[in-house]
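Before drawing any conclusions, I looked closely at one protein, both as residues and as discrete backbone shape codes, quoted below without any editing:
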Amino acid sequence: MNLDRFSRRALHGTEVAVLAVIAVATVIAILQEIALMVQNLEVTLADLLLLFIFLEVLAMVGIYYKSGRLPVRLPLYIAIVALARYIIIDMKAMEFWQLMGAAIAILLITVAVLVLRFGHLRFPYTDEGGEAADRVRDDSPGR
């Protein structure tokens, strides 16, 4: 076995191991959040949005595991939901400019997603071998 082949296998093994750790940690975080909701006997919108963030992280892990690629849009979607959650949780304590900053950040990330979607459709890229890269749908239903 040559060094190049061994290095690729080691790198792939490391990627799979880290993906497994991220997936397990995310599932643990989901279970902890559910336990907290049960303990408080209350489910808030902030709790639900946090669960959506966890689901997006799991979807991102799944897509990366299947395709070996991480679509840039997924972390952007997670950022949008996280900022929305931040606004919902802290809106009453936020000053006007903090609220505007978070809202503008959501708008800018949304524009970035639209630009990426347009660019991906208008200017398809090729993989390292020069062949057209397979398009991985990084969209959840409804996107």
